[in-house]
Write a structure and sequence with these properties.
The complex is a heterodimer of chains A (272) and B (235). Chain A has twelve helices and no strands. Chain A is an all-alpha fold. Chain A starts with a helix and ends with a helix. Chain B has two domains: 117 residues, 3-Layer(aba) Sandwich (Rossmann fold); 76 residues, no CATH class. Chain B contains eight helices and ten strands. In chain B, a hairpin with a 2-residue loop joins strand 1 and strand 2. The longest helix of chain B is centred in the last third of the chain and has 18 residues. The chains are: A mainly alpha (272), B alpha/beta (235). At the A-B interface, helix 7, helix 8 and helix 11 of A face strand 5 and helix 4 of B.
Chain lengths: 272, 235
């Protein structure tokens, strides 16, 4: 399987996204922005369509539009503090509507679009792999260097602001990184399932981790395992990689819930 | 010395002002209580003082030079912050250590001195033995205490607490007031605390700011003891 160049590219891309996606997911979940990844993937799709219509590189235009979408959502989140889910809904529908209209303008787009919607191992081009590598590197530096202010920001924005954290700047950088990660992950897992790779490992980690560092490490470990096993299964049984990875992660989540319940039941029996 | 000064401040939510032409000076080295019934804008007053809200009109000045070269550090415990973040996947000690991040910056490592501060902060709120527990496993009062320990670990010159005793039993509440009194009297720190239980806290306070509703006059800010205050648009 790894003898094929496209599979090597898919594993590299999947591995890098499998690290940065779940890491981002932990922070997104704790900041109650879980749907942001889903929204940005729809916005990014509109960017891909726009790139095709304007004869630009779709990967790059999708990337740029996702980053801009992230910034717009962050700005709207500040305006609609009480209804924080509202900007997400507005941007998601706007992105999808724009993508559908732009797609209709170019008839031969639908085939390449299905690879964006559901992910495709062969869809990972050299340009996309380079984009993913840059995003993963930028993301890792971001999360390692800024881990302390990010922890404080994630726990509570007000105390972070008073404690000297530049909340506005950090939130905007975080939104940009979210847009970058979503756009980079799209070719591997697809628009519809990009948030599964970001959210599912984090939801497993938040259930079982004893501390914050442990949560981050468990999320990355789960993400990588899910991506590699999903890509392998997808190659052998010829299924879309996005769906396969998401289903495997879902099985992991169900297993984590079941094991946690068993442990709790056993502990209760010990005390009774 | 004046730490924070509000002059003719007006602020509200929607169209109606909830803070209407209030002028108020907060002095350093005091234990100040802010009190008033529900909806009296106690938290709003606190957030205006801290610069978390911008007034519609008037000025709020925070005297940062007062703290000297090391910069002003403010420890803030918002209302119910601990309950809101009950699911935060953090050990108690991780959270309290995060109080030291402002002093450490991005890269400086924790020293033995910082570890001592973290330990002392947790001991002062009787939570050291819970240091390896996950936040979500603690009771409401215990969560509140670790948030106070986190603020103490910042080693702030000013400590701002918004109804910190919520969920605490009587013994813990009295322990907290004594601890704050100690910080003010022995270490020269300033403590500003929003409280409902004035009869319980007044023996420990230097100054009380009461927000009261007067017939046909709206909300007024009354200050007892050493703080100076003026009211009305003409102030």
């Amino acid at each position: 399987m790894l003898g094929y160049e496209f599979m090597q590219r898919a594993f590299w891309a999947g591995g890098l996204i499998g690290i940065i996606g779940p890491l981002l997911g932990v922070y997104l979940m704790l900041r109650r922005q879980v749907l942001m990844a889903d929204t940005l993937s729809h916005v990014s799709l509109a960017g891909v369509a726009l790139g095709s219509v304007l004869h630009l590189n779709p990967a790059l235009s999708g990337f740029a539009v996702a980053v801009i979408g992230g910034l717009v959502i962050e700005q709207l989140r500040r305006s609609y503090r009480t209804y924080s889910e509202l900007p997400v809904a507005i941007i998601m529908t706007s992105g999808l509507a724009l993508a559908v209209v732009l797609m209709s303008l170019k008839q031969n787009l639908s085939k390449s679009f299905s690879s964006y919607l559901f992910g495709s191992i062969v869809a990972v081009s050299d340009t996309q792999l380079r984009i993913i590598a840059v995003v993963a590197a930028v993301g890792l530096v971001f999360f390692i260097v800024l881990r302390r202010p990010l922890y404080n920001l994630t726990f509570d924005e007000e105390t972070a602001a008073i404690g000297g954290v530049h909340v506005g700047l950090l939130s905007f950088s975080f939104a940009v990184l979210t847009g970058m990660t979503v756009a980079a992950a799209m070719p591997v897992v697809g628009v519809l399932l990009v948030s599964a790779l970001i959210v599912l490992p984090a939801s497993i980690a938040l259930r079982i981790a004893s501390g914050f560092t442990a949560a981050v490490l468990i999320a990355i470990g789960t993400g990588l395992t899910g991506v590699f096993s999903g890509l392998t299964a997808s190659y052998y049984i010829n299924t879309p990689p996005g769906g396969t990875i998401a289903l495997i992660l879902l099985v992991f989540l169900l297993m984590a819930i079941a094991i946690q319940k068993l442990i709790r039941r056993r502990n209760r029996k010990k005390h009774s | 010395m004046i730490l924070s000064s509000m002059q003719n401040v007006v602020f509200g939510y929607g169209n109606e002002p909830v803070i209407d032409h209030i002028s108020l000076d907060i002095h350093s080295g005091e234990f100040i209580g802010i009190t008033g019934p529900n909806g009296a804008a106690k938290t709003t007053l606190l957030k205006l003082m801290l610069g978390l809200l911008r007034p519609w009109s008037g000025t709020v000045t925070l005297n940062k030079e007062w703290a000297g070269n090391r910069g002003l550090r403010i420890g803030y415990v918002p209302q119910q912050v601990a309950s809101f973040n009950a699911g935060f996947p953090s050990k108690v000690i991780e959270l309290v250590r995060s109080g030291c991040y402002q002093r450490l910056g991005l890269f400086r490592r924790f020293t033995a001195e910082q570890e001592d501060i973290v330990k002392r902060s947790l001991e002062q709120v009787d939570m050291w033995e819970y240091r390896n527990r996950r936040i979500g496993e603690l009771s409401g009062g215990q969560k509140q205490r670790i948030c106070i320990a986190r603020a103490l670990a910042q080693e702030p010159q000013v400590l701002v607490l918004d109804e910190p005793a919520t969920g605490m039993d009587l013994e813990s509440r009295i322990g907290l007031y004594r601890l704050m009194r100690h910080y003010v009297s022995k270490h020269g720190r300033t403590v500003i605390m929003v409280t409902h239980g004035l009869e319980e806290t007044s023996p420990y306070l230097d100054t009380v700011i009461s927000l009261e509703r007067k017939e046909n006059e709206g909300w007024k800010c009354l200050v007892t003891n050493s703080c100076s205050a003026h009211f009305g648009p003409e102030a």
